[in-house]
Amino acid sequence: MSEPSGTQDASTLVLRISIPAGAEYQVIVKELAAKVAAYLGDTDPDGRAAADALDEVTRVIRSGGPGRAGSDGSDHGANNPNNPNNPNTPNNDEDVIFEFRQTEDALLVRARSAGRSADARRPLSS
Q1: 0.70 cut: is pTM over it?
Q2: Which residue ranges form the domains of the chain, and what is each CATH number?
């Protein structure tokens, strides 16, 4: 599905997919990321780097983010991602939406879940 020309970032939407939480679904989307990257001319011909980028954006949205450390270096406060009262604690049961966008020189991979998002960029051959 393409976006109309003249959009702000002049990118083309290649693919958007929503997957349920769970490692078994992550395998599918990693394979898809490798195939999309190869199709678009990623500089890594086997797509491994695109799959690694997808792992990284998934890790970022699934982590609770940095907490506030206590004086002993431990994190026992409300910002601790393991504290269920932390409003920033991710819900790892939420679906994840992955977007793959092509720009002139890169494949942009975005993951979104439970109000969090993360991006990665893969260079494309010219």
Answers
A1: no
A2: 12-64+80-123 (3.30.565.10)
